[in-house]
Amino acid sequence: MSEEHKGPRPAEMKEMLEAFSEKIPALLNSLTDSIYGKDASAKFGAAVADFYSTLKKSGMTDEQAFKLTEQYMSSLNLGGIIAKAVGKRHKDEE
Predict the structure, then answer these.
(1) Alpha-carbon distance values, 41 to 16, 29, 33, 82, 86 (Å)
(2) 44 CB contacts (<8 Å, ≥6 apart)?
């Protein structure tokens, strides 16, 4: 009886890991720059300021506008969303 090998062979696995080690850092740097780069940060700040200003102009109190703006900022924070999702997944696995 022969034992069937399932999954990638060691040489194939080594090739895949080498490819990932070359591609992943560049991908992460690009993603980080698009989320936290100077241009993205300026757009994020402008969007939050506009949101807060609109709430205040509509007659909300400072406290109401601040709380809603915090929620708005959380919904726009892609890094935070990813971190929460990964953290939740790890909690579910325990």
Answers:
(1) 35, 16, 10, 17, 23
(2) 76
